[in-house]
Amino acid sequence: MDIHLLTHNVISILSSVVLLGMTLFTYLNGRRNVGNVTFSMMLLFAAIFVVSHVIGVNISDPELSKNILMFNLSLFGAGAFLFHSVVYFTSKTRPRVSLIIVMYAIAVFFVIFFLVYPDQFLISSVPKMYFPNYYNPGTLNLTRLIYLYAVFSYAIYKLVVLYRASTTTASRNQYRYFIFAMIAGFCVGFIPNFLVYDIAVNPLWGMSFALVAIVPFTYAAVKYELFNIKVIAKQAFLYSLSVIVVGSCLTLLMYVSVWTREAYPNFPSWTIMLVSSVLAVTISFVVWWRLRENDVLKYEFITTVTHKFRTPLTQIQWAADALSDNVSDADGKEQIHYIHTASTKMVELINILANVSQSEAMEYTYKIERCDISGMTKDLVSTYMPQCLEKRIQLVSDIPPDVNVFCDRSKMSFVFQVLIENAIHYTPENGTITVSLEHKNSGVNLKVRDTGIGMTDDELSRVFSKFYRTASAQRADTEGMGIGLFLSKEIVSRHGGDIRVDSDGLGKGSMFTLHLKDEA
């Protein structure tokens, strides 16, 4: 096999593996998020293109090569899904559904048209440079590039607009590296098209577009939490990169084996196979051991927490019930009611913590029903009013009646509790907390604004991470675990909603905004 063709094949295979790994990473990180799902579908269709390319250009039969290369029609699907994901991620209001439908319709039209008239897309393949067969474009083949790169240009434009409008360092870094990754990938990925139109440019390095894009993508994903990485997605992503490294080593050993047989015919070829086998088994064992170790630690921790916490909390509830039967004065009954309510909230927290841990491996049940968010919010404000009065904090509410959404009542109540309790914990005496509810953007917004400790730009980008607490929060409340906001974001995401935080800086307060789709 020609050394250039071999190198081309190796790079193409590695690119396909990278694309599949990125597909898995993006999908696992937001299976209920439209933007994540459509972006992962774009990556999957790009992987289909790479696989069909590397197979098609290595086949000596011109007609069979052409039929396999017809899978390049997947680029229309990649363009449509890219457009959909960009519109979703960049739209501050409801995305323009009609525009998305038009782009999908155009892609479907071209795919059907070229399936009916394939010669308009590709003619029987012909040998070019070192390839047994390569693309022989039909009259309308150029439409795939026009469509794909028109979408790419639109995506870059929208991302640049968001980058310029961004007010935080973290978000600007996310946009900058994502823009750079897209530009690098699409520009390098254009190189193989020169030879399609008989321009003698070696397409070898063009198939490394996924490898080029993965560098800034990985850096942004790990350092700046691109897509707000969850633990399971980060693990899947890192293991995918490990597979790529192992695949590269095995491919290199295969090439060494071929070169050795040609240069030294008497050299025992079984030694290279032995090294490859030992490498593959060793890496597989390490990955398996790490996965097993993580699972054991996780479930031992959850089992210990749930067992150690549930038993005393249940005893507290029983004791509170028994005391309430023997106390006659109103003040005493009120204090016992506080004890019972607090222990009930702790039991709910333990249950949700256990469920979230299990949710990294499987979906757990949500009881979705029509809920009166107005009533739920008013009840919580009333519950926390005595605590605010004791701390000399003014708790203001602006809650219109009859606001309803479909949600899991207990889990959404937990989210509301976390937001209000955090505001109380981190707002000093004589401060103000404002809880408001409003219809906005085809949904319902709950806002909890405080005049508390505030956050820096760096803290804003990490505040929803598991076990993360800002330095100011640790000084204000030494008993926190840094788990409440992480659990809240997980719950809201599973409802198809969104939760974000804004702050003008340290000492200037914070505002948490929770957005849920309304019952319509």
List the helices and strands and how they pair.
Blueprint: H1 3-28, H2 34-56, H3 62-69, H4 74-90, H5 97-116, E1 122-128, E2 131-137, H6 142-165, H7 169-189, H8 192-196, H9 209-223, H10 231-263, H11 270-326, H12 330-359, E3 368-372, H13 373-390, E4 394-398, E5 404-408, H14 409-425, E6 432-440, E7 443-450, H15 457-462, H16 471-476, H17 484-494, E8 498-502, E9 510-517
Parallel strand pairs: 4-6
Antiparallel strand pairs: 1-2, 3-5, 6-7, 7-9, 8-9
Question: What features would you highlight for this structure?
Answer:
alpha+beta; 520 residues; 11% strand; 9 strands; two-stranded antiparallel ribbon; single chain
Please describe what this structure looks like:
With about 525 residues, the chain is α+β, with helices and mostly antiparallel strands. It folds into three domains: about 5-155 and about 225-260, no CATH class; about 270-365; about 370-515, Heat Shock Protein 90 (2-Layer Sandwich). It has 17 helices and nine strands. The strands form three sheets. It has a five-stranded mixed beta sheet. A two-stranded antiparallel ribbon has the order 1-2. Residues about 225-235 and about 360-365 have low confidence and may be disordered. This is histidine kinase. InterPro entries: BphY/WalK/GraS-like, HATPase_C_sf, HATPase_dom, His_kinase_dom, HisK_dim/P_dom, HisK_dim/P_sf, Sig_transdc_His_kin-like_C.
Helix content: 55-70%
Order of helices and strands: HHHHHEEHHHHHHHEHEEHEEHHHEE
Q: What is the global morphology?
A: elongated
Strand content: 5-15%
Largest sheet: 5 strands, mixed
Number of helices, counting only DSSP H or I runs of 4 residues or more: 17
Low-confidence stretches: 227-233, 359-364
What is the strand arrangement across the widest sheet? 4-6-7-9-8
Rg estimate, integer Å: 29 Å
